[in-house]
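QA checklist item 7 of 12: single-chain prediction sanity check.
[x] sequence parsed
[x] length recorded as 236
[x] structure emitted
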Amino acid sequence: MRLTLRRPIYSGHIARAQGDEGNVTCYSSGMPATPQDWNVVVNGAWNLAILTPSGISRRLLQLPEGTPIQVLVSVDQPGAIRIGHEGSLITPSSGRLFVEPSDEFTVQSLTNAAVIAQRALQSLPETPVSAAGVNIKFGFDALPDTVLDLVASPLDDALADGHYTIEGRHVRRTVQWQDGLLNIEIDERNNASGVISFNFHRASTDPQALRAWLGRVSEMIPVADTLMATMTEAGE
């Protein structure tokens, strides 16, 4: 099957899933998809003695002293603290900084998350860093047939002939995009539900290069949307 890229048709606003009402149409094929796990990640040796709630408030959120913020702590098991403020959740750890929208998935909410990560790179330039990524995922209760065709392989028939039951299928492609890489993945579960994921990855030890990468979020979402339309409308 040969794919032809479709033009971008992103609507500019995708709401966070809320049960059945969370299914949204995010591209022109009209297939329902639920946005999942939109986030920004910066890998590095972050100093948790600096990235305390007050340090995050001052350095990453740039809030006046005394401004209320949410501090979320796991009570059932050990886990990292999470800081919430105005639609963003920040989770620092010694190996990465994780920032995600907390209320809805939109170009603006993901851009806000990227800005917070950019401030971390700017305010803590001495932090050894290795990479930054922007993740955009969409879940399907039932993957479109055109997407199922893309994950099909002659190996499936061979396994079936051997009386093996396939519980899941996965395909991944990595392509160059701008100064980094775009990882495209399709995960199919045994009930034909699944996830299409886009990971915009930039490896660099230069904080300035990673800041520039995170400044391209507004370009990344239309790229993901175009590829979604391409995959779901293939063969039409």
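[x] summary fact logged: The longest helix spans residues 107-123.
[ ] second reviewer sign-off
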